[in-house]
C-alpha cells in the first residue's frame, strides 16, 4: 500500500507549494531549523521534535487519495526523521571537528560512542515497533516515530556538548 501511495505522489507530480520549502512530502525541514533557532535565541529548552509535523499532515491528508489511512502519518514521520538525521549529522560533525583540537583520543571515543548510540537506537526502535505491533498498533509508525524522536533527542544532547566545549 505504501508503494501505491508513493506512486500516487510521483505520478501526480506533486511538489510542495512555494510556502513549503520541503520536498513533495509536504514536510519543510526549515520548520526544525526555525524552532531550534527560536529556542536558542530565547535561551530556552524547547522540544522541537514535532516541528513541521502539523503542516505536513495537513498537506499530506489534503492530497493523498490512496487506501492506506496511515500513509500521511508515515509520509510525514519519514520526512521528519530524515530532516532530524541531517540536523544530527551536522551537529555530530561540528562536535567531531571541535574535538580535533583535543587530539585523536577524544575523537575516537566520540566515534565509538556514536556507533554505540546507533546500535542502542536501532534496538530501542525495533523493540518499540515490535511491542506496538504485538498490541495491534502500527509497528511501522511506532518505529519511525521512535527514530525521529531519538534523532531529535540525540541531536540536542550533542548540541549541548558542543555548546559546553565538548566532553
Automatic annotation (TrEMBL):
Instruction: Provide the alphabetized UniProt keywords.
Output: Signal
Top-level taxon of origin: Bacteria
List the signal peptide residues: 1-21
Matching entries from Pfam families are given as: LprI
Q: Where is the Lysozyme inhibitor LprI-like N-terminal domain?
A: 75-151
Q: What is this protein called?
A: DUF1311 domain-containing protein
Amino acid at each position: 500500500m505504501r508503494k501505491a501511495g508513493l506512486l500516487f505522489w510521483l505520478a501526480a507530480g506533486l511538489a510542495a507549494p512555494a510556502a513549503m520549502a520541503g520536498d513533495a512530502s509536504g514536510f519543510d525541514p526549515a520548520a526544525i531549523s526555525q524552532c531550534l533557532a527560536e529556542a536558542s535565541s530565547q535561551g530556552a529548552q524547547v522540544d522541537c521534535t514535532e516541528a513541521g509535523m502539523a503542516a505536513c499532515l495537513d498537506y499530506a491528508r489534503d492530497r493523498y487519495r490512496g487506501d492506506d489511512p496511515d500513509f500521511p502519518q508515515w509520509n510525514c514521520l519519514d520526512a521528519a526523521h530524515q530532516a532530524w538525521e541531517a540536523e544530527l549529522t551536522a551537529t555530530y560533525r561540528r562536535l567531531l571537528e571541535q574535538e580535533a583540537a583535543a587530539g585523536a583520543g577524544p575523537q575516537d571515543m566520540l566515534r565509538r560512542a556514536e556507533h554505540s548510540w546507533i546500535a542502542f537506537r536501532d534496538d530501542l526502535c525495533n523493540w518499540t515497533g515490535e511491542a506496538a505491533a504485538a498490541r495491534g498498533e502500527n509497528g511501522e509508525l511506532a518505529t519511525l516515530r521512535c527514530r525521529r524522536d531519538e534523532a531529535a533527542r540525540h541531536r540536542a544532547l550533542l548540541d549541548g556538548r558542543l555548546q559546553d566545549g565538548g566532553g
